UniProtKB/TrEMBL annotation:
Protein name per the record: AB hydrolase-1 domain-containing protein
Domain of life where this protein originates: Bacteria
Gene Ontology molecular functions: catalytic activity
InterPro entries: AB_hydrolase_1 (IPR000073), AB_hydrolase_fold (IPR029058), Sec-Metab_Biosynth_Hydrolase (IPR052897)
Pfam short name (any one): Abhydrolase_6
Signal sequence coordinates: 1-32
Keywords: Signal
Domain annotation AB hydrolase-1: ranges: 38-109
Amino acid sequence: MFRRLSRMLVTLTIALCAIGITLTCAVPTAQAAPRPTIVLVHGAFADKTSWDGVASILRRDGYRVVAVDNPLRGPAHDAAVVDRTIRTLPGPVVLVGHSYGGAVITNIHDPKVTRLV
């Protein structure tokens, strides 16, 4: 029962993140801004493959998506890993964190980051 509820909550969280990214990135502007790269950061007790479903939906919608392999060594260390990934990406970035990944992304202060989800 707990396992089923846990899976349902994870699925709901992923769906809400996907909706939030779509709404956040779909704001029309007078001049077409470049689409952001979506960087997905998993939480504890998971790995980057936990984002596969969301990543495929976002790619299908035309976004560049990077799922970071969060080493789970502490927020500062893990944020440095995410930051190194961001520095390799061109253009604006939207960071998406699930659970502990959300705590990690709040430690990123790169000016390319336009949104935290």
